[in-house]
# Entry
Amino acid sequence: MSENKIPYKIYLSETEIPKQWYNLNAVMKIKHDPFLNPATLKPCTADELKEVFCSECVDQELNRKDVYIDIPEEIRDFYKMYRPSPLVRAYCLEKALGTPAKIYYKFEGNNTSGSHKLNSAVAQAYYAKKQGLKSVTTETGAGQWGTALSMACAYFGLDLTVYMVKVSSEQKPHRREVMRTYGAKVVASPSDTTEAGRKILKEFPGTGGSLGCAISEAVEKAVTSDSCRYVLGSVLDHVVLHQSVIGMESKAAMEKYGVSPDMIIGCCGGGSNFGGLIAPFMGEKIQGKNNIDFIGVEPASCPSLTRGRYVYDFCDSAKITPLAKMYTLGCGFMPAANHAGGLRYHGMSPIVSALYNQGYMRAVSVEQTKVFEAAEMFARIEGILPAPESSHAIRVAVDEALKCKETGEEKTILFGLTGTGYFDMSAYKQYNDGTMKDSIPDEASLAQGFSTIPDIPQNK
Amino acid sequence: MSENKIPYKIYLSETEIPKQWYNLNAVMKIKHDPFLNPATLKPCTADELKEVFCSECVDQELNRKDVYIDIPEEIRDFYKMYRPSPLVRAYCLEKALGTPAKIYYKFEGNNTSGSHKLNSAVAQAYYAKKQGLKSVTTETGAGQWGTALSMACAYFGLDLTVYMVKVSSEQKPHRREVMRTYGAKVVASPSDTTEAGRKILKEFPGTGGSLGCAISEAVEKAVTSDSCRYVLGSVLDHVVLHQSVIGMESKAAMEKYGVSPDMIIGCCGGGSNFGGLIAPFMGEKIQGKNNIDFIGVEPASCPSLTRGRYVYDFCDSAKITPLAKMYTLGCGFMPAANHAGGLRYHGMSPIVSALYNQGYMRAVSVEQTKVFEAAEMFARIEGILPAPESSHAIRVAVDEALKCKETGEEKTILFGLTGTGYFDMSAYKQYNDGTMKDSIPDEASLAQGFSTIPDIPQNK
# Structure
C-alpha cells in the first residue's frame, strides 16, 4: 500500500480540535416545538429549567440564534486528553467486501469511558463546576453515560451520584466498579435514599428498577439541594450541541483530504451522537449547499423513528419531566426482554425528530442478529470490537457498501463508530452461542406503548 | 495553555511507523547465555526450536548480528490500524503532583486488544501464515495475550486454539468471549483434548489448572501437527524484538520535539514490554551515547529481579520447555493467592535479565495496594483506566516525580503504559472495597520456589 494516499487513520493535530460547537437549532429554518411544562402545558421557561439543569446548559438548550458556540478553554484542555478522535479509512473492510465504495468511520471509543458520551459529560461537569455547584446527579442504564460522567466529575472535582438501574447494576458489576474507581457514588435504583425510590420499593418490593425510576430519583436528589443539579446524557439540544464536536472534526478531517461524504450513517438511541455527527453537514444541507443522504439507524426492537408518532410525550417513563415534541413509541414502551443491542429509549431527540419530520434525513431499523453479525465481521476485519449500539451503523454502512458493489457506484460513506463493546460481552456471548433472537414489536405492543402518550390538546 | 508547545498527545504520522525493529541482542557486548535442551543440556539448535515455533521467529530469536530487522510490509499495514500509538505528555498528572519533572507515557492500550501484546501477536501470526501453517496454539492466563493473538489470527485467517487456565476462564468469561468473537477456539485447561491435559485431570480431578499446564497442552497440540506451531507472548527474544516498535516510536516522537528522557520506567512480568520500550535507548547506552536511568518495576509478590537468582531454569512450571538463563524465583514458584496485580511470571526475559546482571538497569518492587492507589489516581487525573500491570510503572513514575518535587530537579521521565484495565475490574473492586491485601513472600516461600530450579552443572 503506497504511503502518500489517504492514511488508515486521519488524526487532526491538537490545534485542530474545534474551537466552537455547531448549533443545529440556529440553522434550522423551522425550529422544533419547545418543551412544555406538564402542569401548565406552556413552554418551559429558562428559570424553570434552571432549577433542574445547570444554567449555562439551559441557555445553550434554548439558544436558537448562534450557529457557532465557543467551547471554553477548560473543556478544550480536557478534549486534548482524548481528541481529536481518529477518522479511519476502512481500507480492510472495503477490501473484504469488494466494494468500490469508500468507507470512513469516526471512532469515538478511543477514551477510557469507551464512548462518545464523554464529549458532553465533560462540558456539563465543567459548567456545573463553574456555576459553583458541589455535586451533580444522573441515572445510567447500560453504564456508558455514568462512566463518562464519572471521569468528567473526577477531573473537575465534583461529587457525583449515579442512580443505576438495579438489574443493570447487578448484571454489570464491572461497569459499576469503573464508576466507583472514578470516585462516583453508585446507588442501585430504586433505593431508600429518595422519596421516589422508597415509594416504588413499597409498591413493588423486589423490583429490578427502570430508567424512568432512576431518573425520578436523580432529579429528586438534585432539586432538593441548592448546590446540586441533574445532568442528562442524550436527547436534549445542549447534549446534541456538545456532540457536534464529532461532526466538526469529521468535516475538518475529510476536507483536509479533499473528500466529501455522499452518505452519513449513525445509530439513533436518544439521538445525541447522530445529531452531533451530522450537525455541520446537515447545516449545509439545510442551506442548500449539499445533498448528503443522512441515515439514522435504530433497532427493530425499539423503532421510534420508523414506527413511532410525532407528538408531545414525557422524556421519562415515570412522567415527571417536561414534555418534548418528538418521535416516540410512548413513554411506557419497553423493548422486548431479549433485546441486547442497546438504543432502548422510547423517544428521540427533538432536533433529530424535527429533521426527520421535515424530510432532511431518513431512518431505517435493523434486527439485532444482523447487527451482531456485522459487529463480529467488523471486529475481525477492522480490529475494533464495537459496542452493540455502534454496530447498528456498521450494519447499514456494510449494506450500503454492498449495494455499491452491485451498482458500481463509488460512494463515499461516513459512519459514526460511537464506542467499544468491552462491557457488552454477555450480548456477544448470546450471539456466539447462537441463542440470540430477534424481536419486532407487534401492533398490540405498539398500541400498548402509544396508550401511554399523554392525552393533551397538543396531541390532538 | 498555549497551543505551540509540546502537545498533550504526540502522534507520529502513519509514514513514521518504524520500518525496522531494534534487535538488542545484536548490540549487547556480552550476549546472554543460550537456551539449553533439557535432555542434552546443550544449546538448542534452530532445527529443534523450529519444531515448536515458526521458522522466521526462530531465526529472529537466534539473530545476534543485525541491529535493525525489517518489519514486513504486511505487518506494517496491520500496525497502521492502531499505530503509531500516542506518546502522551502527562500535563495533568504533573500539575496534580506539583512536580517540576516532565512526565511522558507511551500508551499501548489504544487498540481493541487493549494492550501492547498485539505488537508481537500480529508479527507471529504473519510469519505463521507466510510459512504456510494452517493454525497456531497458545496459552493465556489473564487473557491479554490470547485476545491480541485472536485479533491477529482473525486478520490473517489462521485457526487459533487458546488454552486458557480453567480458573481464569471461569473468572473472566468476558475475556473468553472476546477471543471467541474473534473466532478463536478457547479451551479451558486442563482439558481432555491432549495427553497432558488428560493426565493432569486424572491425577488432580477438579483442578483449576495452571499456566504451566496450559503451556503443556498448547505445545503438545502444536507439535502433533505439521501445519501448526506454538506461539508465546513474552519472555523470548523475538517477542522483545517485536515489542521494540514501542521504543522506536517513543524515541522518534521525543526527538521530534527535541526531548530526551533522563529515566525510563516500565513494568516487568515476562519482560517483553519493558525490553521493547527501552530497546533503542538501551542500545545507545550500551554504546556509551547516553546515561539513562532504566527502571524495571515488578510486584513485591513476584520479585524475580529483585529477589530471584540468575540461573538456568525452565520457562514453564510443567518443566517441558528449554532451559533459559534468567532471573527466576524457580519454575515452581507461585505468587500468593491474593495477588491481583498481574506480572505473575516466575522468571524474566533472558535479555532483560542479562542487562540487569550487567548493570545497565535497575529494578524495584512495589506492593499492590500502592500500585492500585497510583492506578486510581492516574485514572482520575489522566482519564485512562490503566491495567494493574501497567500501574506498576505508574507507581514508580509518580514516586520519582515526587522526588523531583523535593529536589527541584526537572527530570524528563518516560514510562510505558502498556494497557487498559477494562477486564480487571474485580481487582479494582477489591481495592475500592478496601479488602485488598499485600503479600510479600517470606524466606520460606522463596526457598520453596528455589528448590524447583533444576539441579544441573550450569547452576553450580
The first strand of chain A starts at residue 9 and ends at 10. Chain A touches chain B through 48 residues (CB under 8 Å). Chain A has a mean pLDDT of 94.
